[in-house]
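Each record in this resource describes a single protein on a pair of labelled lines. With that in mind, the following record should read easily:

===
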Amino acid sequence: MKKTVKIISFLLVIALAVGVLTACVDPEPPKPEDTDYAAAVALDMNSETAKIELGADDVHLFVDGDTTHFNVPKSIVPTGILKARYIAINTPESTGKIEDYGMAAKRFTREKLESAVSIVIESDTATWNADSTGSRYVVWVWYKTADSAVYRNLNIEILQNGLAIASNTANNRYGTTAVAALNYAKEQKLLVHSGVKDEEVYRGGVVSLTLRELRCNIADYQGVDVAFEGVVITNDSQTVYVEDYDEELDMYVGMNVYYGFNAPNAVLGMLKVGNRVRIVGNVQYWEAGDSYQVTDLKYNMMKPNDPSNCRLLSRDNELAYTKITADQLKNGKVEIVEEVEGEEVLVNYDFGALAHATSVSMDNLRVLSIYTTNNGGDSDGALTITCQVDDVTVKIRTTVLLDENGHMITADKYTGKVLNVRGIIDCYDGQYQIAVYSPDNIDIVD
């Protein structure tokens, strides 16, 4: 009996000693499989951090998994739009190269915030802090889906679901829990930590990307097989122009695609104006046009569903013909956040370069002069119409235009007139111009 008591006493001493040692260590949140780290932190509306409560309708734009734009009072951001970059996470790309699980992360963020009855964005400090680009603010995003519910931390929820990798995850207000959520996703081998390829990303040596990524980094893809989506807006001389809307930039981005004389009938059937298509082809520099284009379109008749094939996605899409000004065409700039040597920075692009090959319209162009091509080639009769609007000179370049009777339209029809035009942004001799492929796209207004 005494021996038993001694053993029990000894075990109690050991237990107390272990307890003392454990109390000296900064405890981590528990990590059972069902741990919900997003609910393990609590939003304190009375804390010193800068914060604002919003509704789901205040989401201005879903960019990707870790970036959302919110409508806020101009007292917070002069533009009234706070571009939120989520603290502690880095989700895969879905606005440039399409990375594994990038689209899944984007959907996850959208679904959570669209279901919210209340959203709170919170800074890590008492002030709103810009990121390295100076154009976005690093924040925590909280949401709840019912008035009676508690707020959930979306940043941490994204981490615990395996939809992001680390990005300064530990050094912030909720760092301990954020790191625990990240480690849990790694231990469970969830999504980005799984080593499993994302079925939404096309393989086979083809780089899947957006038109924005392709247009911004076109020289880097010289000779590379690429895949992107867009709507066919014009088909002329074995070339189609394809454009797609970029939500973050709030503009269309495009590319000219040369299909040549030997394209399979299946591909030709896809490339009708208004069709939304997935283009798979090779990027090449076109010397004669002093521009890049996508050519050598890929299609295997024996494997029509192969992801390395061009593919028809939908029909009868409305063409944009975005209205622009002459000054925007000639002098407009677009700021884009890009990663340069591991650091996110703002990069300026010419609007004309970024919008090259997209459909636009421009009004009230007063014709100053017209040059008619006459060099003995197929383009004899094409017009270069020099116009002016708001003291800015713009050139309109046409193909050979024919009237309803098949007769060539000459310069006389437009000389001294005021025109509204619809066409494609083009570049000639270093100057952006509008290319017009049909007389139906030139209206005489005066």
